[in-house]
Structure formats: C-alpha cells, structure tokens
Amino acid sequence: MKERDGEGRFIKVSLETRFWEKVEVKNENDCWNWLGWKVRGYGRIKRNGVKELAHRISYSIHFGHIPERKCVLHTCDNPSCVNPNHLWIGTHQENMTDRGRKGRTKNGRSKEKFDLSTKRF
Ligand SMILES: [Zn+2]
What we know:
Elements: E1 3-4, E2 10-11, H1 15-21, E3 38-39, E4 42-47, E5 50-53, H2 54-63, E6 71-74, E7 87-90, H3 92-101, H4 109-118
The structure holds zinc ion (ZN).
Zinc ion (ZN) binds next to loops.
C-alpha cells in the first residue's frame, strides 16, 4: 500500500507499519494471529521485495537482529502467531527436538494415521 504526503508524493510505508496492519494484537499472553498472507500456516510479508516469515519480522522488530542460521520458534505451537512473548531463538536441531517432545515428528502420531488408512485397502 502506498500513501502520499502533502505534496502528493508517495511515501514508502515502513515494514513495521505494514506488519502491524496485519496483526490481531491481544493481551501479552494470548496468541497474536497473523491476518495477512500465509503459507502452510506461517504468516508471510515482503521486505524489500523478499518474502519473509512474519514471526521472524516480529522478532526482529522487538528484539533486533536474528543470529545467522538460527530459527525463530514458537512456544505456543501456533505458526501464525507473531506475539513476541511466544517467540524464542533456537537452532534447527532444537526445533526438531521440541517437535519430537511434543509428539509431532514423522515417527509419531502421523505414522499411526498412515497405518490406519492403509488397512482399508
Ligand atoms: Zn502464540
């Protein structure tokens, strides 16, 4: 979206402004759902024409730079949540461990579902 200043020139709307337009802000302990564009549940926003994950943008707005090769993870397991209180920095490995602990790996519950569906044939 573009806005004009008093003389009719376009003003570049900052990433932060565009970000907050798409967030359902609630109490600090609630999930703040992303209302904009999503891919596989994760909020997406463009920064300088590059697609970025909305929760990563949220993290960098609130806490600053995300270290290289680090993931921004959710404590709430809600991929569309951008509440900074629900975000933490971890490695890809920590993310996998976290998922495993919560029973969401490929060897967990989803395999059971697969077995059930194959029995019908
Ligand atoms: Zn959340």
